[in-house]
Amino acid sequence: MARELQLREAIREAMREEMRRDDRVFLMGEEVAEYDGAYKVSKGMLAEFGPERVIDTPISELGFAGIGVGAAMNGLRPIIEFMTFNFSLVAIDQVINNAAKIYQMSGGQFNIPIVFRGPTGSAGQLAATHSQCFESWYANCPGLKVVVPSNPYDAKGLLKSSIRDDDPVIFMESEQMYGDKGPVPEEEYLIPIGKADVKKIGEDVTLVSFGKIMKVTLAAAAELEKMGIRAEVIDLRTVRPLDYEAVVASVKKTNRLVVVEESWPLGNIATEITYMVQKRAFDYLDAPVLRVTGADVPMPFSRPLVDAYLPSVARIVEAARAVLYI
Amino acid sequence: MPADIEFSKETYLFWYEKMLLCRRFEEKCGELYTRQKFGGFCHLYIGQEAVVVGCETAIRPEDRVITAYRCHVHPIVRGMHPKFVMAELFGRTTGCSSGRGGSMHMFSKELNVFGGHGIVGGQIPLGAGIAFADKYRGSDLITLCFMGDGAVRQGAFHETLNMAMTWKLPVIFIIENNQYAMGTSVERTSNVTDLYKLGCAFEMPSYPVNGMRCEEVHQAVADAAEHARQGRGPVLLEMRTYRYKGHSMSDPQTYRSKEEVEEYKAMDPIETTLQTILQKQLATPEEISGIQAHVKALVDESVQFAEESPLPLPEDLYKFVYTQPDYPFITE
């Protein structure tokens, strides 16, 4: 029986192990050192690695994101923490124009082995600017990889792979998952970037999701089970590259697909999956693909509106029944 | 700064030859661009040459250089044969960025040229990050981070100066103040027009420098390099210079007078340096002629090389995007 760790502990363990393994790896961000991390992800790391490798920054996301990219150009392997990816918007020039582009623009001379990590999405009643999902924004950009784990085991294995990756990786967590516990083995392991995980095998309908909303999706699958509907549940784990094969293979079996995602609907990951499924599995579909997403509005503050905005078990169950015509 | 400090014959001849090479090379670029031999943008450095050569003689070859989009000359001054820059302008696989970067993105890892960057001010945090890595490793290398006067109005500049000073990073910020951000004069962009003073807000040693004279550029950068190498942190230098040509090739230059341009051409750094060489008898007129002929040959060779070099193949579209060799690109 593997021990249980919180998601924040699994992420911390991944960073610690990689920093012990490779002295080119360092952690930089707001409150990561003396405060022990805004969400205590980096707790104790300053004490272990010292201020040269666990570095507090001023509130200057654009500046320190770019300093990270420059350090990566010059042989280091930075982990840049955004307190949330909402704040990455003021740094997005450095992520999109520099981290994602310099390898190509330099004709392959300068690769950027960097990880930008932090929480994404909503986290309670934080209103419009602190509740956003940019997974599809970053995933849209060639040159980046985008990893969105849903549990402690995946987070550790995927973060270790991300830190060792020679390309820039966006690694998106959730405030609402940091306390989640799950089994994490003592022994070292890596999870490859770009491989989805089938969380539950079923024959009736495929549910695809990733990140925090996996919790809701799995709860919905349990509800469906009670109704005698056996859903296959796929956790994408990575949204760039995206494991289309896993989704298509499942749809060929179930003939029905619901994609669940927290972000706004236009041009999101669900849209992309829907495109690829109609392209590769058109003749296998017995119903239109449905998606359950965040509402097409900025996230409001008040509780009933938050609940109305987010994908819920009820909405997922309803969508699954709709594609099953029951 | 004493203008009559003694520099060696080699230094003067390096300055003269490299400045002349940059000038003739870029004149050729302008001509070829006008003849539509290559596409993209084309921002010429003509007029500002004393800055780049004065910096080069004040630092070590292993030191790092990063700049903005007016970047044709930086690799050449660092020792690159200009044919690789010309080939890049022509979009050839032999270009210094393999035809992926073009005019605004000249790179050479071998020569410690960390690019050519097209987003105004975007290279400033990178420069500090490059210096961060050298300090992290405990080396005494320094980074020269070039930018134009337009870039100092970007947030990235102020954020980076603050962190570089707080962390005492070995970086020298070099503002090439050619007085116009595209068509907008420095006076029209801020109440603060002495740009070096912007460093003072962070208590960074910050100085104005006559960027039309190699001697003064060299001395200021040598002092700053010594400071940074000793671990005492960054320095900001405002090189006061001028570009004779428009911001880019499509600039009608309605924002300044012909008289103003002529005024600066009268203090042309190449001409000034040549006069000093002749006055000090550091070279004979024959030797100067030899340099001029050599420069002309290099430029001619560059054009020929670029024209004869292969274009990338369409199937190489996906090259250099990821280091991962089997990255699954979306192609449907």
Description:
The complex is a heterodimer of chains A (326) and B (332). By secondary structure, chain A is of the alpha/beta class. Chain A folds into two domains: 3-184, Thiamin diphosphate (ThDP)-binding fold, Pyr/PP domains (Rossmann fold), CATH 3.40.50; 197-323, 3-Layer(aba) Sandwich (Rossmann fold), CATH 3.40.50. Chain A has twelve helices and 14 strands. Chain A has helices at 7-21, 45-49, 61-73, 92-99, 102-105, 135-139, 152-164, 214-226, 244-254, 269-281, 303-309, 313-323, and strands spanning 4-6, 25-29, 54-56, 77-81, 115-119, 145-147, 169-173, 181-183, 197-200, 205-209, 231-235, 238-240, 257-260, 290-292. Chain A has a seven-stranded mixed sheet with strand order 3-2-4-5-7-6-12, sandwiched between helices. Chain A has a five-stranded mixed sheet with strand order 9-11-10-13-14, sandwiched between helices. In chain A, β6, α7 and β7 form a beta-alpha-beta unit. Chain B has 332 residues and is α/β, with parallel strands linked by helices. Chain B has one domain (9-318): Thiamin diphosphate (ThDP)-binding fold, Pyr/PP domains (Rossmann fold, 3-Layer(aba) Sandwich), CATH 3.40.50. Helix content of chain B is 41%, strand content 9%. Chain B has eleven helices and seven strands. Chain B has helices at residues 9-34, 49-56, 73-77, 82-89, 123-137, 155-166, 197-200, 214-229, 258-265, 269-279, 285-308; strands at 64-66, 143-148, 171-177, 180-181, 184-185, 206-210, 235-240. Chain B is globular, with a radius of gyration of 20 Å. Classes of the chains: A alpha/beta (326), B alpha/beta (332). Chains A and B meet through α3, α4 and α5 of A and α5 and α6 of B.
